[in-house]
Specification:
The chain is of the alpha/beta class. It is built from 24 helices and 40 strands. The longest helix is centred in the N-terminal third of the chain and has 23 residues. About 1% of the residues have low confidence.
Length: 852
């Protein structure tokens, strides 16, 4: 038996347990556990056995044994102690067994369940996988397919939602708190945290640990955690770094459910050992704390100056400074939070956990994230997409500098900068990305009370012509359309306005207008069917201030007030008002972005006929048998791999000598392209390794000889292909990241690739909507698909995405050029680089590991 790294995961009641493959040290405990199994279900010594532990006690085990007849099928068995049943132990074990087996090539589980055990049958049937159950006298024979489709991933996510919310109750809805390290000195962090809890009138029991005081700020102090009268739900630790591990261990022994470690510079190893051993959740270390404005909780366990007023925003941030700045800005605007979590070094509780918490929290209307790193970006994407369907999710852009770019050889890989990958992640998940705290607050002000526009068409109404022009320009620069007003609308405006006014968009009402008439003008343009939203721009004059008449209308309205001191304000009627028309246009564009994302169809499985996964796996296995460390596939291997996924690839013949090259040209019976296969030569054209339109045996022999002279002993042969039709040349490619997964890229190809750098990117797996976005995402796309149909390229992108998903060993892939000619599309040149990878299941229910 092989011991694997221990994984922590949550049961349905929020309890933390540990899962790992059995080791020899577990033999006695497993023998004891076997006694709970009927004789017909032995656990054999050679089975793959997964153990579940709670406080070092074995509470369950699952095992599978591969079939002797079919290595892709295995028999599975589960056993859970009587005391631990009905808490999700069996389900969690089975999920992890499915993931473990699938990563090792198993595709089906079989099981014989006693017919009088409906609980176990229900466990299998509710898992979310395709199952058949066949009654047979005393047993029910179960067959379980292990391919994880959307139904299974949704079921796992729902179970994770239940367990995740339960585990965070001790963090965000504690009934009792202890502050450890609360000192008398008012300048100490521990004192400040305790003071905020007292000032905020925490609704539960509040204690402090201070061996030198009996009472502090009206709160009873105790010499140690062990002497507390109750085991608190939450401990806030503010002691010096060297003392934190011992305090954490004391908390675990006392039965504390969760900790917030404010202290920085803590040795992670002993701290995490206590957290894992005692099944605690932990925020931090190196954070400013947590807060909840829930009236039933009233918890401010932070050392912020003013705390947070009640509101609808859930805020999670790795930076304490960012949290404080956001709270200050929201407070100035009259907005507030539901919960604030400063994750700091993020050893345990992460942004993914908070997304689970806020998904169904009715008090939270918007979610704000500041994430400097992603422990599990693919799970984040799925969680964020679920939350964004219910409420806006905003992220402050960070950690996207070119300094993080990975050096890469291919065209596609050069695209995969941290910025490109993160942008793709956020865009596909429906996350609104902002540049900084000021923009965050400006967009939140618009989202707070403004209905989402039905389209991108905007009308600008202003009593200052120049500002109206700036607003119209800003709309265009942000991808919005300045609407063409109807004749009926311009006639109605003319009846309201002086003759010198401009009734076309942007509408210039002139400065001699009162607030009531200005408001009527806004209503008139809002009623125009061509208008989706209105930006009302005003400046005060000696004749009055039209801003006083701005009101809600039949379409979304944002205001711009030139005399406004702050960058954004919320008027009494809820309308967001900006000091700069550019800010108003940017915020309106964010609303449009969200509206368009919400209108996208939900992800659905796409049937792609003609895919042969076993053939693709065979090509991969052949390559690794020769090149264990991976590398670029030979041209004929590339053709076989891509053809296995139904991709239109121009075939060819690999020739090792001049006679073979000449014979290949004769067999095609037409002019050919001859490409060098030479060690260390990737960009063949630049190296002189591509010769085109070779129509005679003499030309083929001549150019082959030339390549021998040019590349010497590096030349291993040539790849001979018939000349392809000319057409529009595109690029389709993949570059994989171990954490983010495959990034699919498309754009202009051929000689235009490096010259124009016009590409769009999205993370696999791609939905049809993702592909639509890609096909419209590069600058030249409108012109390209005005002349050529989208459908053939759409199909190629879906197949490339499926290939990258099913063959995770693909590190880089380039189809360049992909030639589009009428309804036909063909990859004229292709390259694929493989790397060995360990199986990764990003959707598995498991708590974050520190450093991951």
């Amino acid at each position: 038996m092989t011991t694997h790294i221990e994984t922590r995961a949550l049961l349905s009641d929020g309890t933390v347990i540990a899962l790992r493959e059995a080791s020899p040290e577990d033999a006695d405990a497993l023998r004891e556990l076997r006694r709970e199994l009927p004789d017909r279900y032995p656990l054999a010594e050679n089975d793959v056995v997964l153990c579940a532990f709670s406080d070092d006690e074995l509470i369950g085990a699952g095992a599978y044994a591969p079939s002797a007849e079919d290595e892709t099928t295995a028999n599975v068995v589960l056993v859970v102690t009587s005391a631990s049943q009905s808490r999700g132990v069996g389900t969690l074990l089975l999920e992890h067994l499915v993931s473990l087996a699938r990563g090792r090539g198993v595709r089906r589980f079989t099981a014989d369940l006693l017919s009088d055990n409906p609980r176990m049958l229900g466990l299998f049937s509710e898992l979310g996988l395709v199952m058949t159950a066949t009654p047979d006298t005393e047993v029910v024979r179960v067959d379980l397919g292990l391919d994880a489709g959307e139904d299974y991933l949704d079921a796992v996510a729902n179970r994770e939602l239940t367990s995740g919310v339960a585990s965070l109750r001790a963090v965000l809805k504690p009934t009792s708190i202890v502050v450890i390290g609360a000192g008398r000195n008012a300048t100490s962090v521990g004192h400040a945290v305790l003071a905020n809890l007292v000032k905020g009138e925490f609704a539960g029991e509040l204690h402090a640990v201070n061996p030198k005081a009996d009472e502090l700020l009206g709160v009873t102090c105790y010499p140690s955690v062990a002497e507390l009268p109750v085991a608190p739900d939450l401990a806030v630790i503010c002691v010096p770094a060297a003392a934190v591990p011992a305090v954490a261990e004391d908390c675990g022994k006392r039965g504390v459910k969760a900790m917030v470690v404010v202290t920085s510079g803590v040795d992670p190893k002993p701290l995490l050992a206590s957290v894992h051993k005692h099944g605690m959740r932990m925020v931090g270390p190196n954070c400013i704390g947590v807060a909840s404005t829930d009236p039933e909780v009233r918890m401010d366990a932070t050392f912020t100056r003013k705390g947070s007023g009640g509101g609808g925003i859930g805020l999670v941030t790795q930076s304490g400074g960012v949290a404080i700045a956001v709270l200050e800005q929201l407070s100035a605007l009259g907005m507030g939070t539901t919960d604030v979590v400063s994750t700091g070094d993020k050893y345990d509780v992460s942004g993914n956990d908070l997304l689970l918490w806020w998904e169904r929290d009715e008090r939270t209307t918007s979610v704000v994230l500041y994430l400097e790193s992603f422990g599990n970006p693919r799970k984040f994407s799925r969680l964020a997409r679920r939350v964004a369907r219910r409420k806006p999710v905003l992220a402050i852009r960070s950690a996207t500098s070119e300094a993080g770019q990975r050096a890469a050889a291919s065209h596609t890989a050069s695209t995969a900068t941290p910025a490109v990958t993160q942008e793709a992640l956020f865009r596909q998940a429906g996350v609104i990305v902002v540049d900084g705290i000021a923009e965050l607050v400006e967009v939140l002000a618009a989202l707070e009370n403004t209905a989402l526009p039905q389209g991108r068409s905007v009308a600008v109404v202003s009593n200052a012509g120049g500002l109206g022009v700036l607003a119209a320009d800003a709309c265009s620069h942000n991808g919005l359309t300045v609407a063409d007003l109807s004749e009926d609308t311009t006639a109605k405006l003319a009846a309201l306005l002086p003759s010198v006014a401009s009734t076309t968009n942007p509408v210039d009402t002139t400065a001699v207008l009162d607030a009531d008439v200005f408001a009527q003008c806004v209503d008139v343009v809002a009623a125009d069917p061509a208008v989706d939203a209105v930006i009302a721009v005003t400046v005060p004059t000696a004749l009055g201030n039209p801003a006083e008449g701005i009101r809600t209308s039949s379409k979304p309205v944002l205001a711009v007030a030139a005399d406004q001191l702050g960058s954004v304000a919320i008027l009494e009627n809820g309308i967001a008002s900006y000091a700069d028309p550019v800010r108003a246009a940017e915020s309106l564009a964010a609303l449009v972005q969200r509206a368009e994302w919400l209108r996208r169809p939900a992800p659905a499985a796409v049937d792609l006929p003609g895919i042969d996964v076993p053939l693709a796996r065979k090509v991969v296995a052949e390559h690794f048998a020769v090149e264990p460390e991976g590398g670029w596939l030979e041209p004929d291997q590339v053709v076989r791999l891509l053809s296995a996924f139904g991709l239109p690839i121009l075939g060819g013949v690999l020739a090792s000598d001049v006679e073979g090259a000449v014979a290949a040209q004769k067999s095609f019976g037409q002019p050919i392209a001859m490409k060098a296969v030479a060690r260390g030569v990737l960009h063949k054209s630049k190296a002189g390794g591509v010769k085109l339109n070779l129509g005679t045996p003499e030309r083929v022999a001549e150019e082959f000889t030339g390549m021998q002279e040019r590349f010497g002993d590096r030349l291993e042969g040539v790849f001979v292909q018939p000349m392809a039709e000319s057409g529009r040349e595109l690029l389709v490619g993949v570059v994989s990241d171990q954490r983010f997964g495959p990034l699919v890229v498309t754009g202009l190809g051929g000689v235009d690739t490096d010259l124009l750098d016009d590409r769009a990117a999205a993370l696999a797996p791609l939905t049809s909507a993702d592909v639509d976005d890609l096909l419209r995402g590069f600058r030249a796309s409108a012109k390209v698909f005005e002349q050529h149909p989208e459908e053939p390229v759409h199909d190629v992108l879906l197949r490339v995405s499926r290939l990258a998903e099913m063959v995770p060993e693909i590190a880089e892939l380039d189809l360049n050029p992909l030639v589009v000619k009428g309804e036909r599309v063909i990859a004229v040149d292709a390259r694929v680089r493989l790397e060995p990878v360990a199986p990764v299941d990003p959707y598995l229910r498991a708590l974050r590991r520190a450093g991951a």
